[in-house]
Amino acid sequence: MAGVYKGVQSRVMQMNELAMFVPCLAHSLNLVGVHSASSCPEAVNLFGLIQKLYCFFVGSTTRWKIMQKCTKTNLKGSSQTRWSAKHQAVTALLNNLPEVVKALEEIEESSSAAESKYEASHLLHAMMDFKFILNLSIWNNILREINRVNVEIQKEDIILPRSVMIMQGLVKIIQGMREKPIEHWIKEAATISEKLKIEPVLQNKRISKKKRQHDEFCEDESRTLDPNGLFSKDIKVVFDRSLTEIETRAESAKSLHENFAFLSGHAFLNMSTDDLQKNGADLARKYSKDLNAVDFCQELSVFKDLVTEINEKSSAFDLLQHLCKNDLQEAFPNVSIALKIYCTLPTTSASSIENKTAFETDFDELIDSFAEKKARRVKL
Length: 380
What we know:
Elements: H1 8-15, H2 25-37, H3 41-58, H4 61-70, H5 83-95, H6 97-110, H7 114-127, H8 130-152, H9 160-179, H10 182-193, H11 221-224, H12 227-249, H13 251-260, H14 265-270, H15 273-286, H16 293-306, H17 316-325, H18 333-343, H19 355-360, H20 363-373
Helix pairs in contact: 2-8, 2-12, 3-7, 4-6, 5-8, 6-7, 8-9, 8-10, 9-12, 15-16, 17-18
């Protein structure tokens, strides 16, 4: 609820000044993907073609059956509101690319409908291009990592520190992808293009000449770079946009996490007692109605020497479990309250009471069953 001035966030803050705003990280990741996919024309064209391909097959039961006959798994449609759908769509197409080409060729040769022949031919021409395969391969890598994190932060037992940690890990992974040379991505995509007998080489394209003003002396960069350089420049725009979006949207969660970061095994083992007490005093000022600053600092000092069953990887939840297991909640009431606040800070609202049923449902079977009925109208 990001309405800072007149939205729900501001109204909640008026009622309780201690209420901290934490954006839903699952929805934030969805927006990261949406904005990254719109950051360059190549990405827009890629996802547009994927959706057009899916609609072409799903628009006819005959074409859908040909696709099912040729491919190992059904193609998926992409979605603007559910980013995981894009991951499924890209993965399904990449894993079945030669088979999809075969299905299109069969439709082009055997279909009696001129419109189907034309669309199949148009889609084939667009897909039989190494740049398309290269884009598909790179986006498959990006979406796989975003989707992995998205699934992780929607687990029932997820807590804020782990969410922040895996978001930071995602930044490092995408940064690593960005630093890989274009030759790495070409080599990866070449294994797919070889199956289609497409040469793994980016072709030159005609670039319109930009009119220079009278005081401009430098050459237009797009006219001086080779095809590999141009593609590398475009894909880095996608990586940079993704990194910026992730870091910006995770900033609120990161800031909130830093308030409590001293309540971890690593801090208790490495921080001095004075530093622990200073962090404790700062937190007590922010949660003055829940924590007594003097008592909290004293408890931290004793608790640091008392805990022996933790290590540097122990989380705040591990510390809380240690308190409960040894029945120390009454002895350290402020430490217990601080740990409970930390462990119950929300990270996502993207959960559902039908979550288990949704994961157990075979949607492909339902869709196939519906398509086979070839329903044209609802019978009253």
